[in-house]
Design brief:
The chain is α/β, with parallel strands linked by helices. It has ten helices and ten strands.
Length: 388
């Protein structure tokens, strides 16, 4: 492979052609002012300060570096003498190498080394750019992961769909997205914008597309669906394929977390409703038990009065029945046994009623608390009346 080389102010071209051989494709110009006539990109530019003078050679290098396509070209100066001041001026002007006229025999080796160094620098620059891009991607992915993890942690503290929606919009702001949100709970549907309000057109669109698959893409907009959550993204980066895919992946994980919290809120609401139902039933049972207890006490009093009246009547009448003493004793014993058995049955019923009433009272007190104690629930289960 022959590298294109530009020679500026070199008069002994034939000698250089022989020295450099076929390794370089040489182009000659008298001064740097003629550079605009050349359309080729040169790997190496050799400026002859022997014929041009060091001052003009330095000026030529500075003018060459002003051209964008020659900024990465290797520039070498051929000097008539080896002076420290000239070397410093050459380095300041941007020359890559300084070759004294007495060392022309090593020109090819010096050119080769400069070219190889330039190629190595280009490769290193490319690798650095790739490394920077990879580092930026890694930093971006790490940042996105942090946003998602923080959302998943914070969403567990949300007590309703409004709080959950606003927390999701905070996470979406980290991605620079303009969105509309719909969350479908068993207790209602919540449509939201970032300001907390709902827009009619977006709400209808999300409702109609909720069963159209995971992604519904149209223009620079995309609808993402997951179970009970649908999100309309209005500013997808369609011209950046990597960012487009990353947003879909990362935002979808946010929707999964949102759905999980919606289900949790539904379960929490159902438990609250069940608790309220049990509380109301307990209160109703207490009222009913009080009414039954009052009625029961009245019935018992009436029955006792009837039994006592019957016993008194039998006692008054037994003298007129012509019974002997043993017969009277037998009848009296039967009456006493009946009264005792009746009282025993009444007392047993009163004990059962008192236990059930105490249990219902304890249940009502438990559900009146803001947070039910687990040990108290276990105690209620243990005291639950069982079938015999």
């Amino acid at each position: 492979m022959a590298y294109p080389a530009l020679l500026v102010g070199v008069t002994d071209c034939q000698n250089l052609d022989q020295q450099l051989g076929s390794a370089y494709e040489l182009t000659h110009i008298a001064t740097i002012d003629n550079i605009h006539e050349k359309t080729m990109d040169f790997s190496v530019v050799v400026i002859n300060a022997v014929s041009l003078g060091m001052g003009q050679a330095i000026q030529s290098c500075e003018l060459l570096k002003q051209h964008a396509k020659y900024q990465d070209s290797s520039v070498i100066v051929l000097a008539s003498r080896d002076e420290l001041a000239d070397r410093m001026d050459a380095l300041a002007a941007g020359f890559d190498d300084f070759i004294c006229h007495d060392s022309m025999w090593e020109l090819k080796a010096r050119l080769d080394r400069v070219v190889f160094n330039k190629l190595a620098n280009v490769q290193l620059k490319t690798q650095l750019q790739q490394a920077n891009e990879m580092a930026f991607i890694a930093m971006s992915d790490t940042s996105d992961l942090g946003v998602n993890v923080q959302f998943l942690l914070d969403c567990n503290t949300c007590n309703n769909l409004d709080e959950l929606g606003m927390r999701l919009f905070q996470a979406l702001q980290s991605y620079g997205l303009n969105c509309s949100l719909q969350m479908r709970s068993t207790h209602g549907v919540k449509n939201m914008e970032a300001n907390g309000m709902a827009k009619a057109m977006e709400s209808v669109l999300l409702e109609q597309c909720k069963n159209q698959g995971r992604y519904v893409d149209f223009g620079h907009r995309s609808i993402m669906n997951y179970e009970s959550v649908s999100l309309l993204v209005k500013n997808m980066p369609i011209h950046d394929e990597k960012k487009y895919g990353a947003i879909k992946d990362n935002v979808f994980s946010l929707l999964q977390g949102t759905h999980a919290r919606v289900v949790a809120l539904d379960n929490q609401k159902n438990l609250e409703l069940e608790g309220a139902l049990v509380k109301q039933m307990t209160q109703k049972m207490n009222q009913l038990m009080k009414h039954v207890d009052d009625s029961y006490q009245e019935v018992m009093r009436q029955i006792v009065d009837v039994v006592e009246t019957m016993a008194e009547g039998m006692d008054n009448s037994v003298h007129f029945l012509g019974l002997d003493e043993s017969q009277e004793m037998a009848i009296q014993k039967i009456m006493e046994t009946g009264i005792l058995d009746t009282n025993k049955i009444f007392n047993s019923g009163m004990t059962l009623d008192r236990e059930l009433k105490d249990f219902l009272t304890l249940v009502e007190e438990s559900f009146n608390q803001k947070q039910i104690d687990a040990s108290l629930l276990n105690k209620l289960v243990e005291r639950m009346p069982t079938e015999h």
